Structures are given as structure tokens and as C-alpha cells.
UniProtKB/TrEMBL annotation:
InterPro entries: Arg_biosynth_ArgJ, ArgJ-like_dom_sf, ArgJ_beta_C. Belongs to the ArgJ family. GO terms for biological process: L-arginine biosynthetic process; ornithine biosynthetic process. It catalyses: L-glutamate + acetyl-CoA = N-acetyl-L-glutamate + CoA + H(+); N(2)-acetyl-L-ornithine + L-glutamate = N-acetyl-L-glutamate + L-ornithine. The lineage of its organism: Bacteria, Bacillati, Bacillota, Clostridia, Lachnospirales. Its EC number is 2.3.1.35, 2.3.1.1. It comes from the Bacteria. The keyword Transferase applies. This is Arginine biosynthesis bifunctional protein ArgJ. Pfam families: ArgJ (PF01960). GO terms for molecular function: L-glutamate N-acetyltransferase activity; L-glutamate N-acetyltransferase activity, acting on acetyl-L-ornithine as donor. Catalyzes two activities which are involved in the cyclic version of arginine biosynthesis: the synthesis of N-acetylglutamate from glutamate and acetyl-CoA as the acetyl donor, and of ornithine by transacetylation between N(2)-acetylornithine and glutamate. The record marks 114-115 as: Involved in the stabilization of negative charge on the oxyanion by the formation of the oxyanion hole.
Length: 407
């Protein structure tokens, strides 16, 4: 497997476009299109928040009941959440407008929205944007990147990746783009991720691969502990690579799953590191746990601790906050057996051993904690299981961004 240039247009048969529809932003693009020249098998995972945005409800129906999917239309600026029957009707109108512009069935169109909750979509602008998207779509790397930028809200950088690998002697490509910076605490699987591949794979196994992989990728990140109303991951496979169709969990399936994990891990880390106001990606690895469940619970408890996140921002090796977060996680362990180590590009430093502080240098610890990625390794000495979670530091700017978000 190798990383290649681009994102959602890297796989054969996929095109993309971006448009400035002035939905909220006056100085940038805010609509994106992903289109496949051939019908696609579609898989999806969605927010577990009881309050589900209209696009989530629409996409759940398309993924479950439509024979195939062929396009995704996304807008930023307005989330189309808590908008009632009118908001769901706008999903239908969006799909119909895209269907007419692309000459495909409306039930083959998926939709996505991100932005302010409670506002209705300006449908005339949306429809005008769709027309522009359909007219300007192509398979260039530049258009794929433009689409990745168009779906940003408080994100500071675009997030895209593509990889190539071999299935049945054929070169296969898997690409993706996502957005997410705040209201990030996925439990599904405001984050949106769109993945495209030219692999031939059955709908059942495509869904199984996605549902399996999100547990170790998107479900292991958190910026602020808020599970969005709009969380959506969509995976489209058009089979254009010409590989023998994957219909069972064989070697090709596991190769595909590995590639999917690589892409999703990359995108998940990008979202965590680009958390609103963040200055550092905060990675927590729990090792030698009794079970995977225990390791997941412990690692996620640490990355969601506001006190620990604030300490990371201050480059302060306040390890007591980490042990505290592990202690209230609900997972059982012996605090007097835990080792904690801080790592970064600046080096590695063990802080506590068997629950007791070592004679370490605060200056050295602060230097290690001053890098763009800070890693905490918690060894609980109970077994062979492990898990990794990703978050970010908590800064003054997080409050500023969210205090001013609607204005």
C-alpha cells in the first residue's frame, strides 16, 4: 500500500467540484459535489445523537434502501438540523435538483450539511450551487482538493488523503476527505467524512468493513465531548478497478480493510489535531490492558478530560489529572501498578512508575510537551490489549470561537 496524490477524485471514475453559493460565507466556496460515472455500492455510519439532522435521516434511507448511489452534495454554513419536516423536504429538493443536473435518480443522491443548527437552507442558492457543481465537475486532483476545502467550517486546514493497493492483481485506489474541528465526539460510528474507492466489493462487506473500522478510528477521537447531530461517514465503491468482486472475508477483504483503516486513521487524526483553537494533537495509548474495552474506556477518558487538555496546552506534566481521568472512567485497574510516559518528537520521559512519581525534570517534561503532537502512554500491566485515542489541547481560543460562532 502506498499513499498517492489527491483525495476523493483519486479513484477511477470519480469527479468532484466546489462552488460558492453564499449560504453563509461571503468570501469562499461552501458547496461540494462528489460524483461517480458509474453506480456505486454505498455504506454509511451515522450519529447516535437522538437529535439527528435531516441529511442524516435522508442518507440513512438511501444507504439502506436505494439500489445504488452515484453522487453526494454537501453544503457548509448551515447544518439543516432541528429543522423539522421542512428541513427534510429540502433534502428531497436537493437530491431532485442534483438528479436533474446529473441525469441520475434522486434516490441515488446522498446529501450532507454542516454549520449552524436550527436554520433552514436557502434553497434557491443551493439549487444554483448544484447547477454550477454539475457544470464544473471533473476528476482532477485540484477539484478534489477544492471540494475538501468547501466543506470546512471552523476547520483551519483541508483534510484529504488517497492510497493505492492491490486486489486480485489489480491496482485499487481509496481516497477520502473530511471536515471536523468542533462538536467532535463521534459515537456511531460536527464531523463529515466521504470516502471513494474503485474497488469491487459487495454492499454487505462494504458496510461491514466501514462499521468495523470506525470503532478504532473516528470513534476514538474527541475535541470537546459533544456528539454532533450531523456525524456522517459515507463510503462509495464503483468497482471500476476491475478486481474480482470481494464477496467473502478473504485475503482481499482484509487488504481492503487495512487500506480503509489507514485512510480513516489519517483523517481522524487530522480532525483531532485541528480541534477548535488547538495547538497540539493529544494522543493517548493504553497498553497491557485486560481487554480492548478497558483500553478504549481508559484512553477516551483521558483525551476528554478538560483538566488534562488544559495541562497539555500549558505544557505542564500534571500527571495527577491523567490518573484522575482514568480513575473516574468506570474501568477497573490498579493505580499503584500504572506507569505513565510522555513522548513527542522532542523525546520520551517516564513520569510515574507503579503509581508513584519519578525524579524527572519539569523542564525536560515541558520541552517534550511543547511539540505539535504529544503522546501519553499508560501501561496498566494487566494483559495484552491496547487502544489509542486522539484529542487536542484546550485553549482560550476554543471559547472565543464558540462564543462567536453564530455571529
Amino acid at each position: 500500500m502506498k499513499q498517492t496524490e489527491g483525495g476523493v477524485t483519486a479513484a477511477k471514475g470519480f469527479e468532484a467540484a466546489a462552488a460558492a453559493a453564499a449560504i453563509k460565507y461571503k468570501d469562499r466556496t461552501d458547496m461540494a459535489l462528489i460524483y461517480s460515472k458509474a453506480p456505486c455500492r454505498a455504506a454509511g455510519t451515522f450519529t447516535t445523537n437522538l437529535v439527528k439532522a435531516a441529511p442524516v435521516k435522508w442518507d440513512m434511507e438511501v444507504v439502506k434502501h436505494s439500489e445504488y448511489a452515484q453522487a453526494v452534495v454537501v453544503n457548509s454554513g448551515i447544518a439543516n438540523a432541528c429543522t423539522g419536516a421542512e428541513g427534510y423536504g429540502y433534502c428531497r429538493e436537493t437530491a431532485a435538483a442534483a438528479a436533474a443536473a446529473l441525469d441520475i435518480p434522486a434516490e441515488a443522491v446522498l446529501v450532507g450539511s454542516t454549520g449552524v443548527i436550527g436554520m433552514q437552507l436557502p434553497m434557491e442558492r443551493i439549487k444554483k450551487g448544484i447547477k454550477e457543481l454539475a457544470e464544473t465537475k471533473n476528476s482532477s486532483v485540484e477539484n478534489g482538493t477544492a471540494a475538501a476545502k468547501a466543506i470546512m467550517t471552523t476547520d483551519t486546514v483541508k483534510k484529504e488523503i488517497a492510497v493505492q493497493f492491490t486486489l486480485g492483481g489489480k491496482e485499487v485506489t481509496l481516497g477520502g476527505m473530511c471536515k471536523g474541528s468542533g462538536m467532535i465526539h463521534p459515537n456511531m460510528c460536527t464531523m463529515l467524512s466521504f470516502l471513494t474507492t474503485d474497488a469491487a466489493i459487495s454492499k454487505e462487506l462494504l458496510q461491514k468493513a466501514l462499521s468495523t473500522d470506525i470503532q478504532d478510528t473516528y470513534n476514538m477521537i474527541s475535541v470537546d465531548g459533544d456528539t454532533s447531530t450531523n456525524d456522517t461517514v459515507l463510503l462509495l465503491a464503483n468497482g471500476q478497478a476491475g478486481n474480482p468482486e470481494i464477496t467473502e472475508e478473504n485475503e482481499d477483504y482484509h487488504t481492503f480493510l487495512s487500506a480503509l483503516n489507514y485512510v480513516n486513521t489519517y483523517l481522524a487524526r487530522k480532525m483531532a489535531g485541528d480541534g477548535e483553537g488547538a495547538t497540539a494533537l493529544f494522543t493517548v495509548k493504553v497498553i497491557h490492558a485486560e481487554s480492548k474495552e478497558q483500553a478504549v474506556t481508559l484512553s477516551k477518558s483521558v483525551i476528554t478530560s478538560s483538566l488534562t487538555k488544559a495541562a497539555i496546552y500549558g505544557h505542564d506534566a500534571n500527571w495527577g489529572r491523567i490518573l484522575c481521568a482514568m480513575g473516574y472512567s468506570g474501568a477497573q485497574f490498579d493505580p499503584e501498578k500504572v506507569d505513565l510516559t510522555f513522548e513527542s518528537a522532542a523525546g520520551s520521559l517516564k513520569i510515574i512508575e507503579n503509581g508513584v512519581a519519578l525524579d524527572y525534570s519539569e523542564k525536560e517534561a515541558s520541552r517534550i510537551l511543547s511539540e505539535e503532537e504529544v503522546i501519553v502512554i499508560a501501561d496498566v500491566k494487566m494483559g495484552d490489549a491496547q487502544a489509542t485515542a486522539w484529542g487536542c489541547d484546550l485553549t482560550y481560543d476554543y471559547v472565543k470561537i464558540n462564543a462567536d460562532y453564530r455571529s
